């Protein structure tokens, strides 16, 4: 069935506010291939596959919670105890998320870029391109920066010039002596450790200048040198750094030129804050000013605000998105041009089996978010230029992140990390519309692959136990994974959760080994070729209630016409037993098994 037909069927099957349609899957069995993570020369990656063009969001949510993922309309699940790089489903509860310092820096870096304060570096090729990003500025800015011999940020040079201009205006107005000898203004970046010393409540304090101190000293020196001459235009008593900084701020305000920052004075320092954080009360007091576009007459450096927009749209082919994807694959992953096509792109990131669920106009408080459920593309645009696309699934319990591709010119903005933070925020915001929507799924976590360990930085995260499908806190699972790549995470005991001693962890690991041996024995019993009606295997391989699609009809296996050929019957029963094992008893009876 074509994707167009599947989409039409999905739309017809959906009803507002109600999950409609049915899940129909075809079992593709075991798949063995080479591994893209450990780069093993042998075919060591082992997984189980299902093909589907119709899947309800509830059923896909249940599959996620059993370790499945999708690529287009293909569903796959690693055989964890056999594959070379065991892949654990990882998630976090959005409301409990605590951003790290590095994640906070990612937000601030992008905000500085949008405020025009940050020039971005070209992308440098590294081994870990999964979590690095780059940016683009105008050619005039690039030319100016290339001409600069020092490493002073353009924004600091620009702000220094604005202060120097204010000093000259104060001299012309007679507020400072005309024969004063003072150094050029210097603006420095404020490190986080010094922010509270320079200004109270200054989390967004970015730059500062102490030029008022040498000016005050120079004014006093000039006045002392001319004791017998009184300059009627200069008030001798007002030469403290505090008064000098206030005069400079007033001079800048009167000039009508803006810096793109909120500027305040504190204890003689001239401080530059992020304009996006300025409150309305600050503006009303007349102590700050901001603008979206500024220009330095001496170096033609433009500092302008940029506009970031995010658009959430249903998964569909978009030629602009495809061109961005093509550039991303060529420059970031070094794909060959002939390996990239519209067909492969659609199959990977556009086609989806998920049946759309729309939000009801009558109100679905606590049931469905305003965008509904299904597959989406989240576009990120700066000044209407498409810079990144996040491919996501929105399900009853979670937002599942599938893939992100971005403009290689914006590599230093860390758009992968930024998009993850935005998606976590989205879950928090939309939980008010859908009470069950609590989690953010980051895909697979592979402890044995260093490039994948960054996902554990989103805390507090949980890993899915590959045997009992229970969620285990990452910090609890980590000691087991440090010991070996594959572990039955749920075997960790409650006693070990409350104890941090090495002996407790060692005992827990030994206990895990013993139980894992028993569990493997149980799995072998489930895979035995015994008759499905025997008492010994009934609990593991009861296939009687599996729904099968046969010639357009839906029949339980127990209601199928008797298959006279013993070999065919045995083969079908073996397939259904394996199918029931990989999807679980409940899903095997809820989804439709399509015979091919």
UniProtKB/TrEMBL annotation:
Q: Which PANTHER family match?
A: ARGININE-TRNA-PROTEIN TRANSFERASE 1, ARGINYL-TRNA--PROTEIN TRANSFERASE 1
Q: Does the keyword Acyltransferase apply?
A: yes
- Pfam families registered for this protein in UniProt: ATE_C, ATE_N
For this entry, the protein name equals Arginyl-tRNA--protein transferase
Residue intervals of the N-end rule aminoacyl transferase C-terminal domain: 320-465
Q: What is its EC number?
A: 2.3.2.8
> Where is the region Disordered?
500-540
First-tier enzyme category under EC: transferase
Q: Which reaction does it catalyse?
A: an N-terminal L-alpha-aminoacyl-[protein] + L-arginyl-tRNA(Arg) = an N-terminal L-arginyl-L-aminoacyl-[protein] + tRNA(Arg) + H(+)
Q: Which stretches does UniProt call biased (Acidic residues)?
A: 520-534
Identify the InterPro entries for this entry.
Answer: Acyl_CoA_acyltransferase (IPR016181), Arg-tRNA-P_Trfase_1_euk (IPR017137), N-end_Aminoacyl_Trfase (IPR030700), N-end_Aminoacyl_Trfase_C (IPR007472), N-end_Aminoacyl_Trfase_N (IPR007471)
Job of this protein: Involved in the post-translational conjugation of arginine to the N-terminal aspartate or glutamate of a protein. This arginylation is required for degradation of the protein via the ubiquitin pathway.
Supply the alphabetized keyword list. Acyltransferase, Transferase, Ubl conjugation pathway
GO MF annotations in UniProt: arginyl-tRNA--protein transferase activity
- What protein family is recorded? Belongs to the R-transferase family.
Provide a GO CC annotation, any one.
cytoplasm
Task: Using the record's annotation, list all stretches that form the N-end aminoacyl transferase N-terminal domain.
Answer: 33-105
């Amino acid at each position: 069935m074509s994707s167009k037909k599947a989409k039409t069927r999905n739309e017809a099957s959906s009803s507002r506010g109600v999950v409609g349609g049915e899940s129909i899957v075809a079992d593709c069995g075991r798949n063995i291939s080479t591994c893209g993570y450990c780069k093993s020369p042998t075919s060591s990656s082992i997984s189980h596959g299902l093909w589907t063009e119709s899947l309800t969001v509830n059923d896909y949510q249940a599959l996620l919670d059993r370790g499945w993922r999708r690529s287009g309309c293909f569903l796959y699940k690693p055989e964890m105890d056999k594959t070379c790089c065991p892949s654990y489903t990882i998630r976090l509860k959005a409301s409990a998320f605590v951003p790290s310092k590095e994640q906070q820096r990612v937000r601030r870096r992008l905000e500085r870029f949008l405020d025009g304060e940050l020039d971005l570096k070209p992308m440098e090729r590294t081994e870990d391109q999964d979590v690095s990003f780059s940016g683009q500025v105008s050619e005039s800015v690039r030319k100016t920066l290339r001409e600069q011999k020092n490493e002073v940020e353009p924004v600091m040079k620009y702000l220094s010039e604005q202060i120097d201009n204010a000093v000259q205006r104060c001299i012309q107005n007679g507020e400072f002596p005309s024969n004063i000898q003072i150094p050029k203004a210097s603006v420095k970046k404020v490190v986080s450790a010094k922010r509270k010393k320079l200004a109270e409540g200054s989390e967004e304090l970015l730059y500062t200048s102490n030029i008022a101190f040498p000016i005050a000293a120079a004014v006093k020196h000039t006045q002392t040198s001319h004791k017998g001459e009184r300059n009627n235009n200069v008030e001798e008593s007002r030469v403290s750094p505090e008064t000098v900084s206030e005069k400079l701020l007033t001079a800048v305000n009167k000039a009508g030129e803006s810096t793109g920052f909120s500027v305040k004075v504190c204890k003689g320092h001239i401080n530059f804050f992020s304009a996006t954080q300025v409150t309305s009360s600050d503006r009303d007091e007349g102590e700050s000013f901001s603008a979206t576009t500024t220009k330095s007459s001496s170096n033609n450096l433009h500092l302008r605000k940029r506009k970031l927009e995010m658009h959430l749209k249903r998964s569909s082919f978009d030629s602009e998105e495809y061109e961005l994807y093509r550039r991303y694959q060529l420059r970031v992953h070094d794909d060959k041009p002939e390996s990239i096509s519209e067909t492969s792109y659609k199959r990977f990131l556009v086609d989806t089996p998920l049946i759309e669920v729309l939000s009801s106009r009558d109100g679905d408080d606590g049931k469905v978010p305003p965008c509904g459920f299904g597959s989406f593309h989240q576009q990120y645009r700066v000044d209407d230029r498409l810079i990144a696309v996040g491919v996501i699934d929105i399900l009853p319990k979670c937002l599942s992140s599938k893939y992100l591709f971005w403009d290689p010119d914006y590599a230093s903005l860390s758009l992968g990390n930024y998009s993850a933070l935005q998606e976590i925020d989205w879950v928090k915001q939309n939980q008010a519309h859908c009470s069950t929507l609590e989690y953010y799924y980051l895909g697979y976590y592979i402890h044995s692959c260093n490039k994948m360990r960054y996902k554990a930085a989103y805390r507090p995260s949980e890993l899915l136990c590959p045997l009992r499908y229970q969620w285990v806190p990452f910090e609890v699972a980590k000691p087991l994974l440090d010991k070996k790549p594959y572990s039955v995470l749920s075997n960790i005991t409650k006693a070990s959760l409350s104890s941090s001693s090495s002996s407790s962890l060692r005992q827990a690991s030994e206990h895990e080994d013993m139980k894992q041996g028993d569990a493997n024995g149980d799995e072998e019993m489930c895979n035995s070729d015994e008759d499905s009606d025997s008492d010994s295997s009934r609990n593991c391989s009861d296939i009687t209630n599996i729904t099968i699609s046969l010639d357009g009809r839906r029949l339980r296996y127990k209601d199928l016409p008797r298959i006279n050929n013993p070999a065919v019957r045995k083969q079908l029963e073996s397939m259904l037993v394996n199918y029931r094992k990989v999807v679980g008893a409940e899903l095997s009876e809820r989804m439709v098994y399509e015979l091919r």
